Structures are given as structure tokens and as C-alpha cells.
Amino acid sequence: MTKRYIFSIANNGHDREDWVHFSNRSKIMAAEKWGAEYILHTDVLGLVKAHLKSKSGYFEKFEMLRMCDGDVFFTDTDVVISANCPNPFETLANDCLHASWESEVLVKSRYYEELWPQTLARYLSLNNNFWPTVDGTDCPVFFNSGVLYIPDNVRRVILANLDSIQNFIDRQRDNGFLQFADQEIFNVFANKFSEQGLFGLSRLGSEWNVQVSLEWKALRGKYFWERFRKFRYWRNQAYWCSDARLSEEAYCIHYTGKSRGQLIPEWQAVHEPRWEMK
């Protein structure tokens, strides 16, 4: 049987954060339930070539694949795996990269309709002025990299192309394109390899990556209407409400940014009791 890995990366000292401790506990339990090995790596950047380290801190999601000789279920350190989460190693196809299509839900917000032109411009700069968009909008189609299922077949394709990924990052940095992150680079190559027929892309349902955000508590904007648009956006995202993230249908709950502190009481009140019942 192909080896199974649950993997998280805690560079920048995140492994010492309390919310990481509780996130880890869910992954330890999931690994035992699914017959997988759980790895929390705190120095993946130590594997990155020295010249790249000075130009990019965003190569680690590729480097982790060197360390796993099998199927990989990757979750960020601010993700809790629910006790109700089905086994990805047995329920998801082994010929596709699996991730949630973030713009599928975010496009529903008028605020993101107004924000996307900036994001799209950055994506176009990374991909020779072409990027697929959601029908009828200027919102780029992209996958959230906080929860990924990477079967061994897909892992091998990415490993075989690491040099081209490294060269791409180098060129972007040398050309002054500094405003990109690991998620954007991952999307560039996920789309590229899919278009080349090297592997498929499969959209996970939103229940696999339920976003929790309290960013609206610290919204900024010079003018009132800028702050109001942002508040309206965060308020209207239904899948960020407590009913969504604490429901039986929420498989992986992603506490982003300022919401990470919320992970701790919700682990103790909701997630841990459900795991203990399994």
C-alpha cells in the first residue's frame, strides 16, 4: 500500500503558538484513524537552496514533497481536521491535485468584485498576461493552498519539475515582481501542469476548507465607505459563520489571521469532544 502522510509546515517559529498545538492534536488523531504518518516540519526552508532563500520564502510547499514517498494530505498549521472528516486517502481520486476553489465562493461578495482587479493584475504578471477567470467576472480562478490532497502520482510530477519552479521564482524576483506568495506560485504551476496533461485538478467542496475570519474587527480604510465595504464583505460570507464551521459537514476548519485565537476555545468546546467520541 502507498504510504500516507499528513503534513504541516511551521516555519517562523509558529510551532510555539498555542493554536498550532491544538491543530496538531487533530492531525495526530486523524493520522491514527487513517493509517498515516503525521509530520510537523519546522525547518522546511532549511531544505531550500541558499540563493533561493534570499529571494523567496515561498518554496516550502514544494520542498515538503521531497520528504514524503507517498500520498500527502497537507494542511496549514491553523487548520483543524474535524472528527467527521472522511479519509482523503480512500475517498479522493489518486490522479488529481485536490484543493478548494476559493474564488467559487468569494466571487459572491461585491467587495471581492471590487478588489479582484488588483489581484488579477498580479496573477497576470505571473503567467504571461493570461489567467482563467470566473464566468462573467474578472475574478481569477484559483485554489486555496491551505488544504491540499497530493496523491503520489501528482507528487512525482511536481518533484520532476522542481528546477523549473525554482527558475521561475528566480526570474520573478529578478524582474522585480515581489508581491506574490506561495499560494500564487502553487496556482501558476497547478494550472500549467494541468494544461499540459500531467495531472488533473479537482475542486474540493468548501466543507474541506471552511474559512474562519475575524479580520473585520481590524478593518482599515481612509474613508468610511472603504471600511463599510470591507465590513459588509466579512459579514456576508456565510461560510465564516459559527453554524458553518461547527457543523457536522465541516471537514477542515481554517482559522485564518486574527481568528487563530478562536481555534483554542472551539477545540476545547467542540472539536476535542467530537474526536473523543470517535
From TrEMBL:
InterPro entries: Nucleotide-diphossugar_trans
Protein name: Nucleotide-diphospho-sugar transferase domain-containing protein
Superkingdom of the organism of origin: Bacteria
